[in-house]
């Protein structure tokens, strides 16, 4: 249904429901546990602020190329995503008290 849902397994209903606008392929929680990072079939990577219940960033590395996987470093310092063409993207994640800044670091081909 093109949404990202957060469930508390003790309750029957979803606690939060975020509209992703495309089928979601992967989701990871940031080590600070205040943000979710998701990716979708349209090629978007979205950062969701759980405190504000909103999308704070949307990245589209390549138009119309699905992003298959996202991950965040254990210390929260970087975000890595891979798409269907075998390209990997790396961003530096700099956190301030109220904001996450994403700076592109590199792109590389994971396979031919």
Strand arrangement within the widest β-sheet reads 3-4-5-6
Q: Architecture, CATH level 2?
A: 7 Propeller
Fold-level CATH name: Methylamine Dehydrogenase, Chain H
How much of the polypeptide forms β-strand, as a percent range? over 45%
Q: Tell the overall outline.
A: globular
What is the N-to-C succession of helices and strands?
A: EEEEEEEEEE
Total number of distinct structural domains: 1
CATH superfamily: YVTN repeat-like/Quinoprotein amine dehydrogenase
Summarize the structure.
The chain has no helices and ten strands. The protein has 112 residues and is mainly beta. The N and C termini lie far apart (32 Å).
Description:
- Keywords: Repeat, WD repeat.
- By secondary structure, the chain is mainly β.
- The chain has one domain (3-109): Methylamine Dehydrogenase, Chain H (7 Propeller).
- The protein has strands at residues 3-7, 14-19, 24-29, 35-40, 45-49, 54-59, 67-72, 78-83, 87-95, 100-109.
- The mean pLDDT is 91.
For this entry, give a set of tags.
four-stranded antiparallel sheet, 112 residues, mainly beta, Methylamine Dehydrogenase, Chain H
């Amino acid at each position: 249904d093109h949404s990202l849902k957060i469930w508390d397994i003790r309750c029957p209903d979803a606690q939060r429901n975020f509209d992703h606008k495309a089928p979601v392929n992967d989701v990871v929680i940031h080590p600070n546990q205040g943000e979710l990072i998701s990716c979708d079939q349209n090629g978007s990577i979205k950062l969701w602020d759980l405190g504000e219940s909103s999308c704070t960033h949307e990245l589209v590395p390549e138009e119309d190329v699905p992003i298959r996987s996202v991950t965040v470093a254990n210390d929260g310092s970087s975000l890595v995503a891979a798409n269907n063409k075998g390209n990997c993207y790396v961003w530096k994640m700099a956190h301030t008290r109220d904001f996450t800044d994403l700076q592109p670091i590199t792109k590389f081909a994971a396979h031919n």
